[in-house]
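Inverse folding, one chain.
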């Protein structure tokens, strides 16, 4: 009830700004949020939640200067620059530079995959998989496909979100039985309309692979593996207890800056590690006989959207990408929103060469869908609009405007059932 009231107040506030007509308020009154009309692009003059602080920045008077270093000029490798007329030459140069900045670690060839268990549930054939990388604990993964599938199907590499919750990984977007951890039931209710979206897209005729990301769930940092003075009195006992999970997630959040600084000191980046591990998962999915190798997509919300930006932008095997709840500009991070984001996002020096949306734009002319929420506190609406404009210009210059789309939905940070429908339809359009 409190959540509904909060949404009503926010929607009513937006209606008061004049961004929607009578059908908007009628939908609110009926409680039918799914029927709320909303424009695809919200202008800066319509919504600006920083009206009283618009001239302030997260780093005080240094904000304007810091922004001017990279964001007041066209990045050197932007395809929007006039000198880039040959898309192949541009892509070769930009792709190589991004890979160099990411410092993707070499983690070897695809590992041997073990099927721990397989079974049928809710119309899906489910496989519980595991594989071991050269470092850390084994990676657990879930594979889902229609139980009655007789021929190879398109594949989806589904990325779970961050959500300030490193104890869980694959379970955030899957469901494999009648029993579900109460925290995951709540998580899916809050972010996914109570749905396990990986299951739902698999039911539409896909082989879907979801793996635990570094360092989540099976890949998380355990207390026994760090010095005692770093444990804050925590241990690895009774791991499934909600109170212990809450304590662990709090610890893991505070540990992020340590992990990031250690990775930088090791000569790599957090997005680079993601890229290396997600490429292994893509290798595994692509090698399956039940997958059509030239029809593979990827997508995810939030941290999953960020991974979509990098893997979708840099791996041409991804024929269709859906980035949800993670699209803005470097300027937004500099001035407004770096404090709302994980250390997993940043790639030193790269803003001089590409704006953040242009990382995903490296995949042009391959199909790309971006889904945003207008009340998403992780970004400002003007910069989400700016990111959309950048990607639109990239795709237009490449003669592929029909292969890019961005849609704004009302509400807070989420990937709800309406957004899922658009995402799944987009996969169907380009992969089937």
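Residues assigned per position:
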């Amino acid at each position: 009830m409190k959540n509904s009231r909060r949404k009503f107040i926010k929607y009513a506030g937006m209606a008061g700004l004049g961004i929607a007509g009578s059908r908007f308020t009628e939908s609110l009154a009926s409680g039918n949020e799914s029927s709320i009309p909303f424009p695809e692009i919200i202008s800066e003059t319509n919504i600006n939640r920083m009206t009283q602080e618009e001239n302030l920045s997260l780093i005080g008077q240094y904000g304007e200067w810091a922004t001017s270093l990279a964001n007041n000029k066209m990045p050197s490798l932007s395809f929007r620059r006039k000198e880039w007329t040959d898309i192949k030459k541009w892509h070769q140069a930009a792709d190589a530079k991004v890979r160099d900045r990411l410092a993707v670690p070499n983690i070897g060839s695809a590992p041997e995959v073990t099927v721990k268990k397989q079974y049928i549930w809710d119309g899906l054939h489910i496989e519980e998989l595991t594989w071991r990388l050269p470092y850390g604990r084994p990676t657990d993964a879930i594979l889902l496909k229609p139980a009655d599938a007789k021929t190879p199907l398109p594949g989806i590499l589904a990325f779970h979100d961050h959500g300030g919750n490193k104890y869980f990984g694959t379970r955030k977007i899957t469901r494999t039985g009648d029993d579900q951890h109460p925290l995951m039931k709540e998580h899916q209710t809050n972010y996914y309309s109570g749905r396990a979206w990986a299951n739902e897209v698999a039911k539409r005729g896909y082989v879907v692979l979801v793996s635990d990301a570094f360092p989540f769930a099976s890949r998380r940092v355990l207390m026994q593996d760090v010095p005692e003075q770093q444990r804050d009195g925590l241990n690895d006992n009774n791991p499934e207890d909600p109170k212990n999970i809450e304590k662990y997630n709090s610890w893991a959040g505070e540990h992020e800056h340590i992990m990031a600084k250690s990775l930088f000191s090791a000569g790599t980046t957090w997005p680079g590690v993601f890229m290396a591990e997600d490429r292994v998962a893509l290798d595994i999915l692509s090698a399956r006989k039940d997958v059509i190798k030239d029809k593979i997509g990827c997508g995810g919300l939030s941290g999953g959207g960020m991974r979509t930006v990098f893997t979708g932008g840099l791996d041409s095997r991804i024929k269709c990408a859906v980035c949800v709840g993670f699209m803005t500009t470097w300027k937004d991070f500099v001035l407004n929103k770096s404090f709302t984001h994980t250390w997993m996002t940043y790639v030193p020096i790269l803003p001089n060469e590409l704006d953040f949306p242009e990382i995903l734009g490296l995949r042009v002319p391959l199909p790309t869908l971006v889904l945003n929420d207008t009340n998403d506190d992780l970004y400002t609406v003007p910069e989400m609009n700016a990111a959309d404009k950048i990607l639109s210009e990239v795709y237009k210059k490449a003669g592929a405007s029909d292969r890019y789309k961005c849609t704004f939905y009302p509400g807070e940070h989420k990937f709800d059932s309406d957004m899922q429908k658009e995402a799944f339809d987009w996969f169907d359009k380009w992969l089937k």
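Confidence is low (pLDDT under 50) at residues 1-52. The chain is about 40% helix and 15% strand.
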